[in-house]
């Protein structure tokens, strides 16, 4: 993840009540009930199905796409990974209507906040909107850790803030310090109408890819810490900030959910492969053989304690089934590496944004 070099309480939804009032729903980490056409529908309970009408857009439709995600442009020749659509068991995902969404969002300020998986989703979202309105003028600007995509005719801004941990990573006389109780980036998040947060992958990095020398909790510094414990402590700091600073009447808060990697083929039962390299089709069952993602349980535990309604885009299981969706050798590193963390575009993040779309138009 660190080599990309790019700019850059229970909670819930996704599954939601498809009604005007969006209330917290108790359950096991997710809302269980939505209502589409009178049917009970859990949008994240389903499977991947082949659909020859896919993808929603092509890489050629998105001239601002990052090279790291443009697998087709980087030489990937198999096309199966472009042809799968997420199919809930009891209903269908609402069709992504970009023009209608921009009308609904007229005058709004949206911000994606997190690591390069937030970049992946933000890029997908802007590509989907541009495909829907290819003649609409847009402005794309990048300043340090902020990227902004704006449709002036609708006065809609879709911003990305690169903040890999949400909490602070600073340098002092001892070296680089990950501060689990400190957040200074929060000033950039205020005044937004919609916030979509994400963090996880950087918490795992070790050795030369580890971006800190020490982890600090309160006044104590540690050379290392159990990464799931550190992740939960950092998320709790974020959660307290949201509860203290966000007015849910003015700002809707989402969490992207945990995006899985496919660096170990044994997790999906392949004893011959090493990672995602060469994978060209998804798993077609509804549950991932490797089981639930441990970080997903941590995230849900933090969200459950919060007083603010935070809408969980529960992308983990459906993404776990897409071992074929990563850039692998068709990403930033080319044949010198195998990227099994990020996602090709078009691809899996388009489904994340269909889920986001469903939440935005129904509530």
Automatic annotation (TrEMBL):
Chief place where the protein resides: membrane
GO molecular function: O-acetyltransferase activity
Pfam families, sorted: PC-Esterase, PMR5N
Coiled-coil residue spans: none
Domain of life: Eukaryota
Localization (cell): Membrane
Keywords attached to this entry: Membrane, Signal, Signal-anchor, Transmembrane, Transmembrane helix
GO cellular component, one term: membrane
Domain (Trichome birefringence-like C-terminal) ranges: 93-358
Domain Trichome birefringence-like N-terminal, first and last residues per copy: 39-92
Signal peptide limits: 1-21
Membrane topology listed for this record: Single-pass membrane protein
UniProt record similarity statement: Belongs to the PC-esterase family. TBL subfamily.
Classification via PANTHER family: PROTEIN TRICHOME BIREFRINGENCE-LIKE 43, PROTEIN TRICHOME BIREFRINGENCE-LIKE 9-RELATED
Entry protein name: Trichome birefringence-like N-terminal domain-containing protein
Source organism: Lithospermum erythrorhizon (Purple gromwell)
């Amino acid at each position: 993840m660190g080599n990309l070099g790019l700019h850059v309480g229970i909670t819930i939804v996704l599954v939601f009540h498809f009604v005007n009032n969006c209330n917290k729903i108790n359950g096991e980490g997710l809302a269980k009930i939505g209502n589409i056409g009178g049917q009970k529908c859990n949008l994240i309970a389903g499977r991947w199905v082949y659909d020859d009408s896919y993808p929603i857009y092509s890489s050629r439709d998105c001239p601002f796409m990052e090279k790291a995600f443009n697998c087709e442009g980087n030489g990937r020749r198999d096309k199966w990974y472009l042809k799968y659509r997420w199919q809930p068991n009891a209903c269908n995902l609402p069709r992504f209507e970009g023009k209608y969404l921009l009308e609904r969002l007229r005058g709004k300020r949206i911000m994606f906040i997190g690591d390069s998986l937030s970049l992946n989703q933000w890029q997908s979202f802007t590509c989907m909107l541009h495909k829907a309105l290819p003649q609409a003028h847009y402005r794309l600007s990048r300043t340090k850790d902020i990227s902004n995509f704006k449709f002036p005719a609708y006065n809609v801004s879709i911003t990305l803030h690169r903040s890999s941990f949400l909490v602070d990573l600073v340098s002092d006389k001892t070296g680089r310090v990950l501060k689990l109780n400190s957040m200074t980036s929060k000033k950039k998040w205020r005044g937004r109408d919609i916030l979509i947060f994400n963090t996880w992958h950087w918490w795992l990095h070790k050795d030369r890819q580890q971006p800190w020398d020490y982890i600090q909790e309160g006044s104590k510094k540690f050379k290392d810490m159990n990464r799931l414990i550190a992740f939960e402590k950092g998320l709790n700091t974020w959660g307290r900030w949201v509860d203290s600073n966000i007015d849910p009447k003015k700002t809707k808060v989402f969490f992207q959910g945990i995006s899985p990697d496919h660096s170990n083929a044994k997790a999906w039962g392949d004893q011959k492969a090493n990672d995602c390299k060469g994978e060209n089709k998804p798993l077609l069952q509804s549950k991932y053989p490797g089981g639930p993602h441990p970080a997903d349980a941590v995230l849900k535990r933090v969200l459950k304690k919060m007083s603010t309604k935070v809408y969980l885009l529960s992308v983990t299981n459906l993404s776990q089934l897409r071992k074929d969706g990563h850039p692998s050798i068709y990403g930033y590193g080319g044949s010198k590496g195998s990227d099994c963390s990020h996602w090709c575009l078009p691809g899996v993040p388009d489904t994340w944004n269909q889920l986001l779309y469903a939440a935005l138009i129904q509530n």
